[in-house]
Design brief:
By secondary structure, the chain is mostly helical. The protein is 67% helix and 0% strand. It is built from 13 helices and no strands. It has helices at 3-7, 9-22, 34-39, 42-46, 71-84, 88-113, 117-129, 134-138, 143-163, 169-186, 193-204, 210-233, 249-260. It is globular.
Length: 261
């Protein structure tokens, strides 16, 4: 059996694993923040212009505090709701499928690094089954983590392929900038992507000015993202629940969440 044909079973295996592990979430109702962000969000359901999400605070139309900016997730909610209805089952199912896709993207990134097929598949399977992975599947708003992970891994993989001389610089720069930007639009934590690009460039140490182009592309994506985020949340400067805590509880909470990430 050819290696590429053998590896074609990896995404199917990851999909089956995710369906086995998280398939029952399809029967779940709206849980946690789903009720505020989706079920009770009239702005989301009535919006006739999806571009509004890219200049709007995440909390617009909901009754929780401002300060978050996750337009890509809200756009997918709007698109799915208008195409397939606003029941919770469809949203949960898409999250399960996205979780399997994120695991496959991790496999592809590992293979680009030179990891063997079996080791990469094992790592992707562990990622799929890792206990904290239940939250993005069970909670619909966990889609933000999935979207950020998918695009971050895809952009990183393209950089690795370029570092190994397998794709042109123009393609790599476009992918690094575009995927990095989409990852940040998925969730704020993807803002670390430019740092990942820089560290990867230093690790591989490929010579030439083209390496700088990729780093600048990632930094440009971050700059555009920050401008959009400022436009969306400037009128609502609160940063979320942690900002409401007093010291030293605020520092402890920030360090704890950083450790989780």
């Amino acid at each position: 059996m050819r290696p590429n044909l053998r590896e074609s079973w990896v995404p199917l295996g990851l999909l089956l694993a995710c369906l086995l592990l998280y398939g029952r979430t399809v029967s779940y109702p709206f849980v946690l923040d789903d009720r505020m962000a989706v079920a009770g969000n009239e702005f989301l359901k009535s919006s006739g212009n999806p571009l509004q999400f890219f200049v709007s605070d995440y909390s617009r139309g909901a009754d929780f505090g401002p300060g978050y900016f996750r337009p890509l997730m809200m756009f997918t909610f709007w698109l799915q709701g208008n195409l397939a209805g606003w029941g919770p089952a469809g949203f949960h199912l898409v999250n399960v499928l996205l979780h399997a896709l994120a695991a496959w993207c991790l496999y592809l990134a590992a293979r680009a690094l030179g990891t063997g097929a079996r080791a990469a598949a094992l790592g992707a399977a562990l990622f799929a089954a890792y206990p904290p992975g239940h939250e993005p599947a069970a909670s619909i708003v966990g889609r933000a983590d999935l979207l950020a992970s998918i695009f971050l891994l895809l952009g990183w993989r393209m950089q690795i392929l370029w570092e190994r001389g397998r794709i042109p610089t123009a393609w790599a720069a476009a992918a690094v900038s575009g995927c990095g930007f989409l990852a940040m639009l998925g969730k704020e934590t993807a803002a670390v992507f430019p740092l990942l690009v820089i560290l990867t460039a230093l690790f591989f140490g490929r010579k030439g000015a083209a390496r700088t182009i990729l780093c600048v592309s990632a930094a440009l994506a971050l700059a555009v993202y920050l401008v959009l985020r400022h436009m969306a949340v400037v009128a609502a400067p609160q940063a979320g629940p942690i900002a409401l805590l007093h010291q030293p509880q605020r520092t402890f909470a920030a360090l704890y969440l950083t450790g989780q990430l």
